[in-house]
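Long-time lurker. I teach an intro course on protein structure, and each term I like to show students one example going from raw sequence to a predicted 3D structure in token notation. This year I'd like something fresh instead of my usual example. Would anyone be willing to generate the tokens for the chain below so I can use it in lecture? Attribution to the forum is fine with me.
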Amino acid sequence: MRVSGIGIVVLICAALLVSGVSAQSVEKTKMYTVTPSGNLHTPTLTPLVTSTISQGQIVAYSRVISPGTSSMIVDLNWVNSANSLSLTIVAPDATLGPYYDLSDGQTDGRIALSISSSTGLTPGTWKFYVKGYQVSGVQTYSFVTY
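-- Reply from a regular --
Happy to contribute to a lecture. Here you go:
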């Protein structure tokens, strides 16, 4: 099969357009860029927390970021888009969010984000606050960072 020069240019432009859409920034601060994380494949050794939350309740998690870490994935998944959870991330030097179901570009009962910094994530304890934003009854969810 032979591809012309114009065909190659069209393919390259299409690839750039698609990658630009998937990397659309959710939030950009002086230090951090937050983007939708796309299709996730959680590493098998990453601890996944499963819990429940009710209306107005806030559950806190934390993770220590080591020096030299340039990015991390944050995935809050409750599947039931009839309920709404929010996620606020507190780095040692910034507060990110709050983020809601649509923050990652989809209304699907999930907030899946990638946080990155060209100079590296600030080392130290990062805190993650999951809130039952609009919950009827009790909502089961899972939360993981890696």
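Some talking points for your students: The first helix runs from residue 5 to 22. The chain has a mean pLDDT of 83.
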